[in-house]
Amino acid sequence: xxxxxxxxxxxxxxxxxxxxxxxxxxxxxxxxxxxxxxxxxxxxxxxxxxxxxxxxxxxxxxxxxxxxxxxxxxxxxxxxxxxxxxxxxxxxxxxxxxxxxxxxxxxxxxxxxxxxxxxxxxxxxxxxxxxxxxxxxxxxxxxxxxxxxxxxxxxxxxxxxxxxxxxxxxxxxxxxxxxxxxxxxxxxxxxxxxxxxxxxxxxxxxxxxxxxxx
Length: 214
Known about the structure:
Layout: E1 6-9, E2 16-17, H1 19-34, H2 40-44, H3 51-59, H4 64-81, E3 87-88, H5 92-101, E4 105-109, H6 114-123, E5 132-134, H7 147-156, E6 163-167, H8 170-179, E7 182-186, E8 202-204
Parallel strand pairs: 1-4, 1-6, 4-5, 6-7, 7-8
Antiparallel strand pairs: 2-3
Helix pairs in contact: 1-4
């Protein structure tokens, strides 16, 4: 059994089921600004990137002023509907509590901005379980660069060999591997394991499997 001292988690699609929320928000935003609705698979394929990078993938690069306007519009809509779509995946809270009781260091590394990231984690009463919560504003280069994981390890005084990064997107796997940590892919990800160039160390059938990885 592999016993890690630190568990780092992506948020959207890993801890929280926000896929419907993300799709509804991008559907509303792109329809409003370019009168186009993208299919769900296309939108969700960019989950894990910061918002402005997701937006650029869908509708092209915007001026700084326009991007700021779109971001504000997107955020306001998201905050108006999130309670109708937000769910925690099974076993997440109980497993986090169990890991915490084992004196493990816990962290979140997300591409979501702190305003909604912290709000959503607090919504499920799990924010206080994490020793560190990082969003793109906390480092110069967000996922898939290794910087967020390296920053978390530095602040938590953890060696890469002692840590596991759990995510649902290729950006999570690339980030973790580049930082030298083991990775775990959740089985409810949209990714197909056999098609990955960078396969994870572990595939999680459910969240509680983290307690007994072998």
